[in-house]
Amino acid sequence: MSISFRSSRLTKRSARVLGVSAAAAALSLGLAGNAMACTIGDFEAAATCDSNGKGVITVTDTDASATEATVTVYLESNGADEKQVGEETVKGSRQGVTVTFSEDWAPGAVYRVHVTAKPYVDKDITPNLTAPSTACTSTETTPPATETPKPSDTPTESTPTPTPTTATPSASASTTAPATTTGDNSPSPAAGESNLAETGANSNTPIIAGVAVGLVAVGGGAVFFGMRRRGASKA
């Protein structure tokens, strides 16, 4: 009977040791599983500039379990979603996998980043992402200005300019040239007196007047003598 009692005690002790070992193994596996599970702490967001100097928002997933997650980014305004910037799916790794959202963010802009990785995560990254105080500077080069072509050394024939046609004056237009204005300030003679003014101004007027008087005297003398002779012949 003593042998049976000892065997029973050994059997119970062995069972107890096996139970404790199994519990410890289960606990270790549970802790390891929890350590490998996806959490919101595996995600990190940042507002940066790309190689072209344009704004982007990046979200890095360092989930070692590579659980598929959906990342959604919203622009905030007064504590509410103003617009959805974009949505991407990512499977993380211990080294980290990054997804990029093109966003020309303004300095100090606030973004809400939500992560969904069922059945582990359905949360926002806290706190909200705030863009830097300095905007990105684009590195795009301005195209060079177009050079003005230099004139050729060889002269080119110019197109003759057509001569404008001069209108022919109508027959009714007066051909009389305007009277020349002299420096004399004396009043101009009237139209009816122009011939008299020219006669009086002629230097031959006294000679003509003397010849006329002489002719009148000769004519009168001839008439006088003719009348006397006619009277004498009748007597």
Structure overview:
The chain is an alpha+beta fold and 235 residues long. It has helices at 2-36, 194-200, 205-234, and strands spanning 43-49, 55-61, 68-77, 80-91, 97-102, 110-117, 121-124, 129-130. The model is unreliable at 25-34, 169-182 and 190-201 (pLDDT under 50).
Brief overview, please?
31% of the residues lie in helices and 24% in strands. The protein is of the alpha+beta class and 235 residues long.
Q: What portion of residues is helical? A: 25-40%
Give the C-alpha Rg: 65 Å
Q: What oligomeric state do the depicted chains represent?
A: single chain
Ends: how far apart? 240 Å
Q: How would you characterize the largest beta sheet?
A: 5 strands, antiparallel
The proportion of residues in beta strands is 15-25%
Helix-strand sequence: HEEEEEEEEHH
Overall pLDDT confidence: 75
Number of helices: 3
The parts where pLDDT drops under 50 for at least 5 residues are 25-34, 169-182, 190-201
Per DSSP E runs of 2 or more residues, the count of β-strands stands at: 8
Overall spatial form: rod-shaped
Name the structural class.
alpha+beta
